[in-house]
Protein 1
Amino acid sequence: MSSLSLSSFSFEDIPTAEVDAAEELYGGLADDLRDLLDVTIRTRVDESQVARARELVRQAADLLAADAPPEPAGIHFNADGRSWNWGNAVVGVRNAVAPPVRLEWQEDGSVRAALTLGAAYEGPPGSVHGGVSAMILDHLMGETASAAHTRVTVTGTLTLRYVQPLPLGPVRMEARIAREDARKVMVTGWIAADGPDSSPAVEASGLFIIPRWAAEPDAPSGVGSLD
Amino acid sequence: MSSLSLSSFSFEDIPTAEVDAAEELYGGLADDLRDLLDVTIRTRVDESQVARARELVRQAADLLAADAPPEPAGIHFNADGRSWNWGNAVVGVRNAVAPPVRLEWQEDGSVRAALTLGAAYEGPPGSVHGGVSAMILDHLMGETASAAHTRVTVTGTLTLRYVQPLPLGPVRMEARIAREDARKVMVTGWIAADGPDSSPAVEASGLFIIPRWAAEPDAPSGVGSLD
């Protein structure tokens, strides 16, 4: 089995301005890919057009593969406490699988997000896949447990209650710490359609754990939830 | 709120051979996109190369957008009972967000899948995102509840227990019906690294419900779980 430890995080001696520039450069490419991915689901162009599109996609992949280490993106941090996990399946800005979710930290410790889930997140016809709601709630709740990245947490258990279908389109979500007991943090969360009258489509509660190794005095700051 | 009903499914008067051909055509494009998506996370080519790649990606998107209705993919079925949900976030072969998971129906009613989760499914460094495990388990368990697509089910509740990290790479998963009571189906499932000594990384149990409307006599066959 694999295991996680403080060495799972990579310290990088890179100024924050350089990190921000790289994020914008490669993030822009991933944004274009999200558009391509969406239209790939919906298109009905003919075989010859699909063949041309495949040729363009393969050319792009060859260009990018000319210098691409095989490792996944990982989690990195610099001396300023800036951290980046660009490959993350939920928040990774270089990962077109991720919507990506952008976290809004509130002063009371709760965390919100507002995002649009399009055709690529479908489950029931016209609705968000129940597993997608589970995935992004797990992440938002883990980040909430990390108390604004002041500690590292991992998911222990997660329970989801599906109340009603969630239409594809704009959604909002929120999570907050319900209670804490030593290394155990209980978090609740929900996701709903974004609208004045909408009520939660999925409600969740989870137990998040601060691993023993994360309590070591040289634990990196700015890393947050290990989702 | 949106709601689901039998009209959520579209009957299409298309021969199965044509459905299969379309699946292969557009599925091939999505496979190429999965490769592009993966290398987009890992690449470190310079700004000019990224600009060239973006140009190619946008050209491909423009080609495909020339004839693309705005609706998500939905769930369709034909007179043979062949069904297709190509945009599904877990199993959709035209959706590059989906790995996609391919279901292996067992004679005893359990359902298995084996797949490789690469850089696009990362959470903790080198590990599968806990939310990704939740997402694909939800789907596999819902399909299991549908008893080989002989009935429609929706997720009621889902509980996940995270036992150990799941390394990126080949994984296997399995789900089975634990018990049934009228319209309630209890399903258990797990996901593990694919290897001789591996034990589950995430264990799940879920309550799946057969909606009242799905018990109508004209319910379409071959549609299965509404995940």
Protein 2
Amino acid sequence: MRQKHNIDDILENGIELLREKGYNNTGVEEILKINHIPKGSFYNFFESKEDFALKALEKYVQKQFGYIVSLLGNRSVSPVERLKKFYTDMIEFNSNEDCAKGCLLANLTQELGGTNPKFSDAGKKHYEKIGSLIAACVAEGQMSGEITDKFEASQLACFIHNSFNGAVLRSKAGHSTHPMVTYMDIMFDLIKK
Amino acid sequence: MRQKHNIDDILENGIELLREKGYNNTGVEEILKINHIPKGSFYNFFESKEDFALKALEKYVQKQFGYIVSLLGNRSVSPVERLKKFYTDMIEFNSNEDCAKGCLLANLTQELGGTNPKFSDAGKKHYEKIGSLIAACVAEGQMSGEITDKFEASQLACFIHNSFNGAVLRSKAGHSTHPMVTYMDIMFDLIKK
């Protein structure tokens, strides 16, 4: 039977709060409030707000991994079409939120990665794992002749994904999907063989 | 004669604080402390912390503009070499800071652009101005046959600059210039004609 104060629910709610408001603008009181839990319960689950945010990030990324593996590993679709679907889905997701929230991994890396070693390390670990999934798909595209083979798959994957994060960031200024749509138009034209 | 509490000095110190710590992690008390000014002086210059950050951003971007205009407008160097110098200089700058701080415009857009209309609007305005300077250089490169003319200069400039911001963001995770160096290797190969 499901516990009343489930750590998964607290993290899920936390992910949304952190995506919207960022780390430093989210107080523990607010996390307690949206979850209807007392402070004691929070500190039963988490050592600190930092611990909570790292666990929320871990959960967020795990969910992303599951989605990316199923999408980018789907060999019934061409590698380029898989990559296009991956980024198009993210554009749609961001568009539905008026480009206001973005990616939790990118947000926390930007906000804390430079000054907090735990978030720098977590960001590196998560990005490397996501990068390897994208690289496998890029390598397939290079083998099948769809994607330029002028660069190592892992480097090109890094370039493709980081560049998308830059477009998502830019989309927050003015709440417009335009930078992400421009990304799609140009990136997939440039990387084709 | 120079005033003791000069608004320019307060903003300069503020820029560094905001770049390092972000908006929500920077308190007014800290701004007073590094500038050795009383609260009253701060509120003589600024309506609020938000007003202070918007003015600091304005000052930061104005300085960037001056640099970009002189660099990208230098017709004694080829358009592609100018663009390469622009981004190489930024990589060196970030490298000297252990990739810990990044760009204030990108940081504030990421942290606040989604939820605070003033920062969303400011980000849009500043990015459009920077974009137009880059676009002029890209257009020159297209005219001279150095840069692909498959895309509108303004769109390609947006893609080039947003993608670099994504690389800077990624560089905070693990404090490595590697994503920025990869950006240089791949971007300037892909956009050449």
Protein 3
Amino acid sequence: MIFQKEIILKPKPRGFHLITQEIISQFSEMTNISRGIAHILIKHSSASLTINENADPSVRNDMETYFNKIVPENATYFEHTLEGLDDMTSHIKSSLLGSSITIPITNGKFNLGVWQGIYLCEHRNHGGSRKVVVTLIGE
Amino acid sequence: MIFQKEIILKPKPRGFHLITQEIISQFSEMTNISRGIAHILIKHSSASLTINENADPSVRNDMETYFNKIVPENATYFEHTLEGLDDMTSHIKSSLLGSSITIPITNGKFNLGVWQGIYLCEHRNHGGSRKVVVTLIGE
Amino acid sequence: MIFQKEIILKPKPRGFHLITQEIISQFSEMTNISRGIAHILIKHSSASLTINENADPSVRNDMETYFNKIVPENATYFEHTLEGLDDMTSHIKSSLLGSSITIPITNGKFNLGVWQGIYLCEHRNHGGSRKVVVTLIGE
């Protein structure tokens, strides 16, 4: 059984955001899958998806702080600067964190650890709505 | 053909560990798959999985050294510090390296390069046992 | 429907290279898949695959510049140095960026964003030909 759908995530401010419920609420089809996987791709190269801690908002704040330190907007060595200081740094963060995640499905639900959730990592100052393609494969 | 199982990895000290054999030895079901994929997710946000060099232990040592440099525990900008200095840094390393890997299966075996193996990256000082969910999809 | 094939990519100089067309041109089988996923693994631990911006070459240049800054070849803390200064740094870049990518397939084509493409990231000075295994799963 293969199910695929494209959905649009609500615009988010720059930073790391827990979107597990926003995804689940649009995929009731998942309840029909006993075991399988869900693949989620974000169709943009300046935002990313990752799995991380789902409880304490300070984790998401610290992620934003850290990635701004490690990919500095004031670096003088970037060529690709036409669209602003948050452009090239967003491309880099996107490849460091990744454009897609894959999650096991068990008994109709994401089979994540108790403390894990899905993050949308919005790297642009004004990223707007973001599209994701979700593919469910299972039986 | 879809096969899924959750297994518990033996506790490992902080660092990078080759676990290819520990995984394979628990998945005899793989021998029934001519072609397909194996997806492996670690159900924790302070450890990670990656694919890298499978021969020289100095690679795993250098990985640990490098990630400690690039995600420093003495950084003063982290808020999420209640569980110790190795807490927030572990979450960051987890997203830099990734919570899951996907490997092709060919003729009943992982189809990796000759020099590739699976690493468990244990970022906590005392991480304990780690759970992984393995999903095999193939024919 | 599962289709799997190993292909050899043309040797590339060190740096980030757009290979979307080089992959597509060797997978006419994809046109038979209405919906599914493509998994691509590079069988080497000193090169990697990522998805990023597909238009402006300065993005690929800036990626190379950035990863050389963040994983410096003149670091004195590496043990694994027998094969040259670009050896251990290539292993690290490989795990930061990742050995494999998964892309949705829709109506016979990769379902990527308009501005997304597949990068081969060649981290060695003389990497030579690189092998990838592509697995298509769909219906």
Protein 4
Amino acid sequence: MAAVQTRMEAALQRFLPAPEILPERLHRAMRYAVLGGGKRVRPLLAFAASELSAADPARVEVVAAAVEMIHAYSLVHDDMPCMDDDVLRRGRPTCHVEFDEATALLVGDALQPLAFQLMADHVLADKPDEQIEMLKILAVASGSRGMAGGQAIDLASVGKTLSLPELEFMHIHKTGALIRAATVLGARCGRGLEANGYERLERYAKTVGLAFQVVDDVLDCEASTATLGKTAGKDAAQSKPTYVSILGLARARELAEELRVEAHAALSSFDARAARLHELADFIVLRKF
Amino acid sequence: MAAVQTRMEAALQRFLPAPEILPERLHRAMRYAVLGGGKRVRPLLAFAASELSAADPARVEVVAAAVEMIHAYSLVHDDMPCMDDDVLRRGRPTCHVEFDEATALLVGDALQPLAFQLMADHVLADKPDEQIEMLKILAVASGSRGMAGGQAIDLASVGKTLSLPELEFMHIHKTGALIRAATVLGARCGRGLEANGYERLERYAKTVGLAFQVVDDVLDCEASTATLGKTAGKDAAQSKPTYVSILGLARARELAEELRVEAHAALSSFDARAARLHELADFIVLRKF
């Protein structure tokens, strides 16, 4: 994991415009938003899934960076005053606090096309039409039926009592879509998977994505701001429905454990090439930050 | 022109998610931002340029819609309180006024990947690797070295005295990048242009893009809010440098005319297939709104 994280940090450094290129302030703010932090869960999933198809790491690095740029932009916009209005992220001031609101808006607006540019600028598949399909996967996962749509459902849910299926529907879009895209795109960088392979991989990614969110809610309730690197207890303060508010802390912990077991089960028909994916399911559920 | 505008309205209607699809409010807001107005200058340029290469209009419609989604998102974000803080656009309340700020933010965030999704979802070139090249053109034009970068330069220029070259540099990015992309992508939908064809076409588009901006500044100074459908005199009120503030009204009018002549000259080596491009250069400079 540390090797992937180090590799990703270097790749993101390289793929982001240099801070001395015009417009300098925007480029500095883009680098601030993307570099120097984050668990890089999506890149870890992309690299782990790429082992299923023996993909070239140089390709995986590109799709992982593209997904991470989309993820980073979503955090910048999500932290803005008109959304969650948060001042702390990854232990540092959020982008609009460190720079200003207008710059934060543009950082997100510019990171998004950079993700698609990266995926158009490198050879990622043996056939160009497969690469176009990969670009489409990222676009759909980022859009109104994916991540951005999940944010909209999240917005509409503030102060409301959601049912468990409604909460799940929100997270399957808000964080799940990009987690699934990262996993599938990692595998697609190599030779194709066997019949139903992508289907099973998507089931794994969907389960792991939900587990990630359940654990996030548990940690948000349990941990301190210092440990998390972002404001703790925020969801409760904003009366946002969470797994903990709906299920209670004990049952939420149980659910995370059930999802962990389910994620492992989804991988059962893959051979030893799925070892990293198994490890990540454990990491995502058992993490403390 | 009216035929292209009608065709585009229908295409955009079709390409946007239906308002009854979840998340409904976001989809309604996306449709509000894109439909029902606008001169559709970029689609007009794409269709006009596509005549140079005898491109299939069904392809041109897709790239024109993609560019128009990027343009529409940029207007939504540009109008937000942390940017230009404007309440009127195309004669109607701006998106964040009609809906709310968070929704306006997400409208822009979701329109952008929809543009790339469209371009990945349709066959736009005879060879898939040409289509990937076209996706890259749109990504670069939208990003920090294109439109979003131009916005950042614009932000940094408020209250400053710019030189004419600095103002030109800003507009070549802020509005020019997408106008050039629309034109080049329209031509790329067909069989390739002759040697230097794209270069000459880009020169035309760059000139027309600047002329568009000069005329915008002249109209902003001369016309009423009712005629423009957006707040008139805004640039002066926000102490934004404009062609009129730097050159004066009479010289700005002359410059627009010079650019119109230059745009026609850039087309000189094309044959009758460039007729629509010639017409558009006239329309852009001689328009009254």
